[in-house]
Specification:
This protein is an alpha+beta fold. It has two domains: 247 residues, BirA Bifunctional Protein, domain 2, CATH 3.30.930.10; 94 residues, 3-Layer(aba) Sandwich (Rossmann fold). It contains 15 helices and 16 strands. A hairpin with a 5-residue loop joins strand 3 and strand 4. Helix 5 packs parallel to helix 9. The longest helix has 17 residues. The protein binds adenosine monophosphate. The site of adenosine monophosphate has 16 residues, from strand 6, strand 10, strand 11 and helix 11.
């Protein structure tokens, strides 16, 4: 038997309804806040990710699915959405008519990480990006949106962590202070962090290896190095969050793995997921539009881990169980022909109707109807066909009613079922 690829998964009926509901609630919220959907390809030129995410990140160094196409051009299955959204913004000169754009997009991402619970090689994200706004109001609004979404999805036990990563003006002094500490703590750091010390020192701050965490406990805080502009910006974000009643904690260890982040960075963490505690993460990436050959334009966004969200939402699968509204138990060819005709016409009326198509006995059809959870069963045997009256059974109350088999049969069936539909 051929099985799916390690780290990939199927989302089966029964679970998929939960995903659809999360998607529906997210879309409603985004559209209410003026976001428009954008759909971008799942493959891009490798260069796009190498340039924007940064050569010295885990994603680009070891996690991308990259391969030459048949002509030898290097292409990559997208590991994240932001780079593509910005590419589209620049490529279509969307800034020309109005530099301010709010996008959302939902879809699969691919990273060749070590699979474990809550970590997959194909996973899904819900992304929101706002391009063209510098104001700290938008930072606060995005965090507010995340908090609202989680609340609507009945997710509890979440905390918003926020930090500021400064800007190219103030970060170098911090990097220098951090590098001093990294040199001193060399022996305590894991092999990855020793490598990161020279290539991407900020990443050492959020390494999960206990020795590194311990060594970094006394790390300087970027917040002590912020320039006046970055400090005022971060203060304003906090004030807005307080006014909006969004609880948050300042987390100086919070850095993002991608190079293009500046200023506000945030993560939603939960105790409900075990080791993979981040449900969503995001932040400002004021340098990215320019880096991808667009005009100098500020931007900010977030990504929610859909798979992780689906695991912790307060809605349960049972809330979305789907059963047919009607099962037609038909015996004999003439009855089956009519039943088939009717289930197709009922489908057009928005009623889910099923029948047996394997020529089973009436008894086993009744069992099948029961198993399917159908609300009603219409019994249509040869004698019913001859007498011109079928029997409609309400499967909840077990009450039975006669239904005349005339040319208004569809209306008669609907009249039975509709009062019980929600
Ligand atoms: P990132 O793009 O790395 O900032 O990730 C944003 C969110 O996507 C994280 O907070 C996770 O919830 C989710 N995520 C990232 N990587 C994975 C993965 N391999 N499997 C499942 N979810 C992931």
């Amino acid at each position: 038997m051929i099985q799916l690829i390690r780290g990939f998964k199927d989302i089966l009926p029964g679970e998929v309804e939960l995903w659809q509901e999360i998607e529906r609630v997210s879309r409603d919220l985004f559209e209410n806040f003026g976001f428009r959907e954008i759909r971008i390809p799942i493959m891009e030129k490798t260069d796009l990710f190498a340039r924007s995410i940064g050569e010295h990140t885990d994603i680009v160094e070891k996690e991308m699915y990259t391969f030459p196409d048949r002509k030898g051009d290097l292409i990559t299955l997208r590991p994240e959405a932001t780079a593509s959204v910005v590419r589209a913004y620049v490529q279509h000169k969307m800034y020309a008519a109005d530099p301010v754009r709010k996008f959302y997009t939902i879809g699969p991402m691919f990273r060749r990480e070590r699979p474990q619970k809550g970590r997959y090689r194909q996973f899904y994200q819900i992304n929101a990006e706002v391009i063209g706004v510098d104001s700290p109001y938008i930072d606060a609004q995005l965090i507010f949106l995340l908090a609202t979404l989680l609340d609507r999805l009945k997710v509890t036990d979440v905390a918003a962590h926020i930090n500021s990563l400064g800007c190219p003006e103030c970060r170098p002094a911090f990097r220098k202070a951090l590098s001093g500490l990294l040199d001193a703590k060399k022996a305590q750091l894991c092999a990855d962090c020793n490598r990161r010390s020279s290539t991407n020192p900020l990443r050492v701050l959020d390494c999960k290896v206990p020795g590194c965490r311990e060594a970094m406990a006394e790390a300087p805080s970027l917040l002590d190095y912020l320039c006046d502009g970055c400090r005022a910006h971060f203060d304003s974000v906090q004030q807005s969050l307080k006014r909006l009643g969004v609880p948050f904690v300042i987390d100086k260890q919070l850095v993002r793995g991608l190079d293009y982040y500046t200023r506000t960075t945030f993560e939603i963490q939960t105790g409900a997921l075990g080791a993979q505690s981040a449900v969503a993460g995001g932040g400002r990436y004021d340098g990215l539009v320019k880096m991808l050959d667009g005009p100098n334009t500020p931007a900010i966004g977030f990504a929610i881990g859909f798979d992780r969200l689906a695991e912790i939402v307060g809605l349960r699968q049972a809330d979305f169980e789907k059963a047919p509204q009607l099962f037609i138990a038909a015996l004999g060819d003439a009855s089956a022909e009519k039943a088939f005709d009717w289930i197709c016409r009922l489908g057009l009326e928005g009623v889910t109707a099923e029948m047996d198509m394997a020529g089973r006995s009436l008894k086993s059809q009744m069992k099948q109807a029961d198993r399917s959870g159908a609300g009603f069963v219409l019994i249509l045997g040869e004698s019913e066909l001859a007498s011109g009256t079928a029997i409609m059974r309400n499967m909840r109350t077990r009450a039975q009613t006669d239904v005349a088999l005339d040319d208004r049969i569809i209306d008669r069936i609907l009249a039975h079922i509709r009062p019980y539909s929600n």
